Amino acid sequence: PGLHIIAIVFALEVSVGKTNTVMALNNSNVLLPCVFTTCIGFQDLVFTWYFNSTELIYHGRIKSKAAEPLLVGRNPRVEFVGSTTGKENNISIVLKSVEFSDAGRYTCHVKNPKERNAQHNATIFLTVVQK
Known about the structure:
This protein has a six-stranded mixed β-sheet, with no helix packed on it. It contains no helices and twelve strands. The protein has strands at 12-15, 21-25, 30-32, 35-38, 45-51, 55-62, 70-74, 78-80, 89-90, 93-95, 104-112, 118-129. The protein has a single domain, classed as Immunoglobulins (Immunoglobulin-like, Sandwich), CATH 2.60.40.10. By secondary structure, it is mainly β. Helices cover 0% and strands 50% of the residues. It holds the Pfam family V-set. It is found in: Membrane. One of its GO terms (cellular component) is voltage-gated sodium channel complex. InterPro entries: Ig-like_dom, Ig-like_dom_sf, Ig-like_fold, Ig_sub, Ig_V-set, Myelin_P0-rel.
């Protein structure tokens, strides 16, 4: 009998799609996309959106694949538009009535306790332009 080596790969991935830059018209609503994938599923997963690394603008928790995210805290101008019970674990948000001061770096951060608290994030850059 040979020696069998079993490798356990924890693979939490977070993505904002093909491009990491988004342009929005001043005073419009803009979608900030984010999806995550995990090989072994998730439980009590926590996701957070940050603006320029420090300002927390959305914080949610997802109990399991069968449950939609619970809002923990958010900026009043941020609306959650994702869904995690379908095929894609979509944790996208919409930023409402964007202003020039909203331009900057948005980071979607995911932490999965089921994967030994694996953490990953993806960043998207928002540019706000005048009509």
